[in-house]
Design goal:
Elements: E1 3-8, E2 11-12, H1 19-37, E3 41-49, H2 53-62, H3 66-78, H4 80-83, E4 90-93, H5 97-110, E5 114-124, E6 129-131, E7 149-158, H6 164-172, E8 177-179, H7 181-192, E9 198-199, E10 201-203, E11 213-214, E12 217-222, H8 224-229, H9 231-234, H10 244-251, E13 255-262, H11 266-280, E14 287-291, E15 294-296, E16 299-300, H12 311-318, H13 320-330, E17 337-339, H14 341-369, E18 375-376, H15 381-396, H16 401-422, H17 430-451, H18 456-466, E19 468-469, E20 472-473
Parallel strand pairs: 1-3, 1-13, 2-3, 3-4, 8-14, 13-14, 15-17
Antiparallel strand pairs: 5-6, 5-7, 7-9, 10-12, 11-12, 15-16, 18-20, 19-20
Helix pairs in contact: 5-11, 6-7, 12-13, 13-14, 14-16, 14-17, 15-16, 15-17, 16-17, 17-18
């Protein structure tokens, strides 16, 4: 049994959750469910990043007190757990006392690498980061396409330059494994271009008094990224009297940590975070899984364009399983993908209704009509081999969720072809008929296990209707796995 820590990025609460937030949380949930299925000891964490300057500005714009504003939006993000069938073991807020204490302890452990100086630079509030002019694109932040503001003040800095070689070596040797490899190469290129010490505080005035105090200096607030990255260990009890989870899932040599994050924040997780941990004398995370972005009808998600897709609304219309399936099957796990109503409808009808749903309903109906109840399935060697080959491809590509699901749906398609080829409804030979149904039920049983991390409710429904015990099936056809949705509704 392995000890697996799975984390998502914690979200800024300066707005409502959108479909991009849902993608990351679902991907991480699939990993958590898969490792639990394997019998691993899993701890799955998500949360909200509440000490950002952008949260302060959004609260002011809304005419609300900052705490009331972040409390309101925190509740929206935490609601995704039930709406999308997520299995978090913990959901941390960076305004919680346990996090504040842990973040300040991490600062203290890094104090030997921290110094104070006056500095002026271009600051993007959206990224919460200083930029060099050469890193801008036409004078704009490459991530948010907005001109950064010039900020000049006295702040604390972290000696990142002292850790360049150690970080590079850890990444090159896959001590920190970055997936996909293109992100690894980007990070190595960034390191080789020359790292600079980075600012890790902001003035109390610029922060409007919001955030975590720098230990021993209340005139400064801890920079939001130094604060936020600490959540991966503060949620485990780091800095408190109860550190058993921190011991098990971070300090233990057997523990594996997987950070699931968007490509835009890979640098923070692959460079700044390891440097902070090295400075504090703490182990490094094992894996950084960097996913791409979702566009909507070919455009970047933007409030100004009015193309923000609400994951709650989508789930209420079509069901959480349909949302999970679309995001996992349609959006490349390691790249960018696009959402549109048309694509959603196509995936739902072709893959779920006419694919898995139809195969399952059709097979169970044929078995019921034949009145083959309580019979032991005996699949032939060809079917067993086909299922085993599917499982191997599935395991080999598991992180690439869209390819993994494609592999499962190839088995579904194979079953459909098998039915059309054998035409069991036209066969009178009971032995032959049982053989056909044995092969189909064997495939469906394995399909239900393969889709369980992706579509947990569907897998559970399949298991209930198949009602298998030690290879003996008592089939009972229930409600359709996926109800037909009219085109007007979609």
């Amino acid at each position: 049994m392995k000890k697996i820590l799975i984390t998502t990025a914690i979200d800024y609460v300066n707005g409502d959750p959108h479909i991009g937030h849902a993608l990351e949380k679902i991907q991480a949930d699939v990993l958590a469910r898969k490792h639990r299925q394997l019998g691993d000891d899993v701890y799955f964490i998500s949360g909200t990043d509440e000490n950002s300057l952008k949260n302060v500005q959004s609260a002011e714009k809304a005419g609300m007190e900052i705490k009331s504003y972040v409390d309101l939006n925190y509740s929206k993000f935490s609601r995704m757990k039930d709406s999308l069938e997520l299995t978090y073991d913990d959901f941390i807020r960076t305004t919680e006392e346990r996090h504040i204490v842990g973040a300040q302890k991490l600062w203290e452990l890094c104090r030997h690498d921290i110094y104070k100086k006056k500095y002026g630079g271009l600051y993007c509030v959206g990224c919460e980061e200083f930029y060099k002019e050469e890193d801008l694109v036409d004078g704009l932040c490459p991530e948010h396409k907005k001109a950064p503001e010039y900020v000049e003040e006295e702040n604390y800095f972290f000696k990142l330059t002292d850790y360049s070689d150690r970080i590079r070596e850890a990444i090159e040797k896959d001590e920190i494994r970055i997936v996909p490899s293109v992100r690894k190469n980007e990070i190595l290129s960034f390191i080789n271009s020359g790292l600079q010490d980075f600012c890790i505080s902001r003035s109390h005035e610029r922060a409007k008094g919001w955030g975590i105090d720098v230990p021993g200096d209340k005139s400064q607030k801890i920079w939001v990224w130094f604060d936020a990255l600490a959540n991966y260990i503060t949620a485990l009890g780091f800095g408190s009297d109860k550190q058993d989870k921190f011991d098990n899932f971070w300090l233990s040599p057997e523990a594996r940590q997987v950070h699931v994050i968007g490509k835009g924040i890979t640098r923070f997780h692959a460079i700044y975070w390891p440097a902070m941990l090295m400075s504090a004398g703490l182990p490094l995370p094992k894996t950084i899984f960097s996913h791409g972005y979702i566009t909507v009808d070919g455009h970047k998600i933007s409030k100004s364009l009015g193309n923000v897709v609400d994951p709650f609304e989508l789930g209420e219309k079509y069901g959480s399983e349909a949302v999970r399936y679309f995001l996992l099957a349609e959006i490349p796990a390691l790249g960018d993908g696009d959402f549109s109503d048309e694509k959603f409808k196509k995936r739902y009808n072709s893959d779920l209704v006419k694919g898995l749903g139809n195969l399952f309903a059709r097979t169970l109906a044929m078995v019921e009509r034949a009145e083959f109840k309580d019979f032991k399935i005996t699949p032939n060697e060809f079917t067993i081999k086909e299922v085993e080959e599917t499982k191997k491809k599935y395991d080999d590509n598991f992180y690439i969720f869209n390819e993994t699901l494609k592999t499962v749906w190839e088995l579904i398609s194979s079953c459909d072809k098998y039915i059309e080829q054998e035409k069991p409804w036209a066969i009178n030979d009971i032995k032959k008929k049982k053989e056909i149904f044995s092969n189909l039920l064997y495939c469906l049983k394995n399909i239900s296990e393969l889709i369980e991390p992706f579509l947990p409710k569907t897998a559970e429904k399949m298991k209930q209707d198949l009602s298998e015990n030690n290879g003996i099936f008592n089939v009972k056809k229930g409600e359709p796995l996926f109800p037909i949705i009219s085109e007007k509704k979609i």
